Amino acid sequence: RWQKIFMIPLWSKMAVFWNKMFLTIIVLLIVLFLDAVREVRKYSSVHVNEKAANVNTNAFDHIQMKLFRSQRNLYLSGFSLFLWLVLRRTVTLLTQLAKGMTSHAALEMQVNDATEAARKYMAENERLQE
């Protein structure tokens, strides 16, 4: 089934477009991940927490809320980046497998034809020798 899907001419035309989109999404996810890392580092510093605790409890809660959101964004962007890379690798492997199966089938047919021709020539050779 995958062989039929990946051998559609439209698929090869769209492959260039999808590769560009994949790289664009990877860059976007990396930027989001780095921004989330920056935010986590900003709100998890001990110095900021101590100042907020001394000034106002609402300010401390606000800092903790922003820390939670930045950690959430870090996890979401990190897992999204990881899963996007896994998805890309899976599609690449499926494409390679479909191409390999196609070439394997073609080579198998070629070997069968060569074997048939060799048998035919051997049988003809034996008839000529008799």
Stretches where pLDDT is under 50 for at least 5 consecutive residues are: none
Q: Which value, in Å, is the CA radius of gyration?
A: 30 Å
Major sheet details:
none
The N- and C-terminal alpha carbons lie at a distance of 50 Å
What is the average per-residue confidence, as pLDDT, rounded to a whole number? 84
**Helix amount:** over 70%
Total count of strands: 0
How much of the sequence lies in strands comes to: under 5%
Specify the structural class.
mainly alpha
Q: Give the H and E element order.
A: HHHH
- Give the overall shape, derived from the CA principal axes: rod-shaped
Compute the number of helices. 4
Characterization of this structure:
It is found in: Endoplasmic reticulum membrane; Membrane. Its main location: endoplasmic reticulum. It contains 4 helices and no strands. By secondary structure, the protein is mainly alpha-helical. It has a domain at 8-97. The model has no long low-confidence stretch (mean pLDDT 84). It has helices spanning 2-6, 9-43, 46-55, 57-129.
Please provide a brief summary of the model.
This protein has 130 residues and is mainly alpha-helical. The chain has helices at 2-6, 9-43, 46-55, 57-129.
Question: Would you spell out the secondary-structure blueprint of this structure?
Answer:
Layout (H helix, E strand, L loop, with lengths): L1 H5 L2 H35 L2 H10 L1 H73 L1
